[in-house]
Request: fold
Amino acid sequence: MALFIFGAGATRGCSFVKPHINPCLPPLDADFFTQLQRSKHKKNKSLVENVMADVVDLFGQNFGVSMETVFSVMDQTIRMLEHIHDEEHVDVKKYKEMRVRLTQAIATVLEESIMQENSAKTGFTLNPKPCRHHRKFVEKILHKHDAIISFNYDCVLDYALRDYGGGKWNARSGYCFDGGYWGHNFKGEAKWQPQKVAGQNDTIKLLKLHGSLHFKIELPQKRQQEKNPNAKPTVELKERPYTQQYGARVFSIIPPEWNKRFDEGPIGNLWIKAAQEIRRAKNVVVIGYSMPPNDLHSSTLFRTNIGPLKSLVVVNPDKEARKRIRSVFSKGLIRTTKVLSFERFSDFMALDSKIWNYS
Reply:
């Protein structure tokens, strides 16, 4: 089987990304605030201004920080203030509100860069912009029983599986959530199913280890847990991942902090399943994921579970990122492993998969 690892660069490499038409691009960690400021819709104006004011408040006018850095500073500030109970001098609520705004801004940028505008150009439809690379990937490259580990919040790949994954995608079992004995703890999958649904045991697996903008996870309330110690979290797949209807958008993601809560709840279970898929993998393709040096959880996941590989393919324009990925997977590189590198998603998709996909 093949294991595919998707990062933000896979979405940035979509065929619909045309800066001369829409300057707001699917963001990378390093240029998130650049893309946020390129939002042109009036409904987003207040949020964008407030988030940028928050960042200036934290780092000054001439800031040069990534989204990950800002999230980390906000999160650690909140934890420290709550720990020392120093509410007399610093308002903890202020930083919590900053964090909420930044989380909402993620959905804002992704909606504007990924979804189709309505006819009046005042908002967005429920339809994503079509990407021919993702379509070909799902139709021609993916096979039953392949697995994808994604670190992306967006739903570009989810839409491609829904629209083009007939016979090999089943949203009910493909996300690998525990639905409980009767399946009541998992709902909303009907809107993410292809016309021809794959068998429960034949589906591609899509493990979104940082959560997703269409995941809505609710943990059992304390009172509910006391009445029923076996009460499980519920997971709902939302039909509208990015849309703001009433109040703040609701979704379940793990912000890109250095101290990720990867070992809790339904998302924690996905990390366990990801480890199993890494152990099974014989062919690994890493697309647009840079394996950040400070993301020790993810690199450890791969380092400690990878076995001998038949092939390793790395798709990334950054030479240093390609080097890091090969280092992380070094335990799986044996004398016969074929190692290939590409700078762009389109370059990889132009390649005959028989060159790297050994059965």
